[in-house]
């Protein structure tokens, strides 16, 4: 079995606002293994991006509790210098909108060379050669010309390829990709996903992919973590999750996915809305929207239980206590 690379242990990232405390990520635990693509899926506001930003230590306010172990060391306890040596070097991030991540006044070449020079003992000439290799690797022709181009001269798909080249520049062990294809049209989206799959195969890179799109999950994931209202509510290997979803929310997400070659008059949507993150109680946060809601669901939070197939679900339907009510 592959080794654990990242372990989120009881992570809590809360934001204090004038209206109250937003528990954006609340007691979240899961593991990313070496060479694995782990997809974190859920509606917007479920805490998936905040989990990724907590890992990258990119939030102004640090998590209020828990640990994020990277190769056994807690990233949350590291000083700024140590974390900056890991960020961009061992863990790299790709964002949704490449235009806002690239610096518009620097050439593509300068932006790829910068992290190489920062993290590796190489000359500028060697860094340039590596940058051109990377532009080729991500499938952009005329790499030398692109090296001297500015971001606005490239298409959206090419800019995202450049972001992937920057992410790869220091051979990271983990790439965190937050909705990397959402801003792209479907053809380019498929090409970028192919590229990420190739990279994972070639370099055995682990990928943490944040997405709301179950089509992307089906294509990319080895393992899936489903989040809802700041909590992990289900997790399982991808085939197990798609064939045997357990949580009513996951079942709803799968039902809401369009099916090719099947006539659907109207797409299903899960009734109701995500609860106000300030008013979350100690109960199942999905209870307002759940057709199976029982008394216990409104009174007590279901634990994330593990079954013998390695499938975890937080729902009273699968707990003895829930069955007895
Ligand atoms: Fe529905 Fe209860 Fe399960 Fe929550 S715990 S998903 S309300 S059955």
Radius of gyration: 21 Å
- Intertermini distance: 39 Å
How many beta-strand elements?
12
> Count of helices?
13
Model regions low in confidence, pLDDT < 50 over at least 5 residues: 321-325
The CATH topology assignment of the largest domain is: Rossmann fold
The top level CATH class name of the largest domain: Alpha Beta
Give the strand content: 15-25%
- Major sheet details: 8 strands, mixed
Percentage of residues assigned to helices: 25-40%
Major sheet: order of its strands?
6-7-8-3-9-10-12-11
Q: Which series of helices and strands comes N to C?
A: EEEHEEHEHHHHHEHEHEEHHHEEH
Q: Ligands bound here?
A: iron/sulfur cluster
Q: What's the overall average pLDDT, rounded?
A: 91
Describe how the helices and strands are arranged.
Elements: E1 4-17, E2 20-33, E3 37-41, H1 48-56, E4 65-70, E5 73-74, H2 80-86, E6 91-94, H3 98-101, H4 108-119, H5 124-137, H6 143-147, H7 156-168, E7 174-178, H8 186-203, E8 206-211, H9 214-220, E9 223-228, E10 231-237, H10 238-243, H11 248-255, H12 295-299, E11 305-306, E12 312-313, H13 320-324
Parallel strand pairs: 3-8, 3-9, 6-7, 7-8
Antiparallel strand pairs: 1-2, 1-4, 4-5, 9-10, 10-12, 11-12
The structure holds iron/sulfur cluster (SF4).
